[in-house]
Design a protein that fits this description.
147 residues, mainly alpha
């Protein structure tokens, strides 16, 4: 693994850590904000997630030869999931009674817990992928030196 690749990966993990901390702080602050402010923040977060998914798709497309098929499929699935969640949130605004609102809130809370669990797993997978990349690069360098 080249120095620039090591730096890029290390910086990516640092951005991931900082972004998780930012999310934690924004969620904590939301507990004391007006509903309209929280809705605005949620919309902004959803738009940021969609923009990032588009960026990942574009980046993956540019380096398709080096991105495994399974990661490409995960990215497509994630983009579809984001679109569906946005659609669900927009259609849920038509709630008419307290019972429906309660059900919607419970569903949203369950979705939030699932998203956190998925993100946690993604971080673990990212760690494994980075360690695998380091190992594979070491093996390649050893084989090159033996030639």
């Amino acid at each position: 693994m080249s120095t620039s690749e090591k730096t890029r990966i290390s910086e990516g993990l640092a951005r991931l850590s900082a972004r998780a901390k930012e999310a934690q702080e924004r969620v904590a602050a939301a507990q004391n904000q007006a509903r309209e402010s929280v809705e605005r923040s949620a919309k902004e977060a959803r738009e940021a997630a969609e923009a990032h998914a588009a960026e990942v798709h574009e980046t993956a497309g540019a380096g398709q030869a080096h991105v495994s098929k399974s990661w490409t499929e995960v990215q497509k699935s994630w983009s579809a999931h984001l679109a569906k969640m946005g659609e669900n949130m927009r259609s849920a605004k038509a709630v008419l009674d307290a019972s429906d609102a309660e059900n919607r809130a419970e569903g949203a809370e369950s979705d939030a817990e699932a998203a956190i669990s998925y993100a946690y797993g993604a971080i673990e997978e990212a760690e494994a992928a980075v360690l695998d990349a380091i190992s594979v690069r070491m093996e390649a360098n050893e084989l090159i030196r033996k030639q």
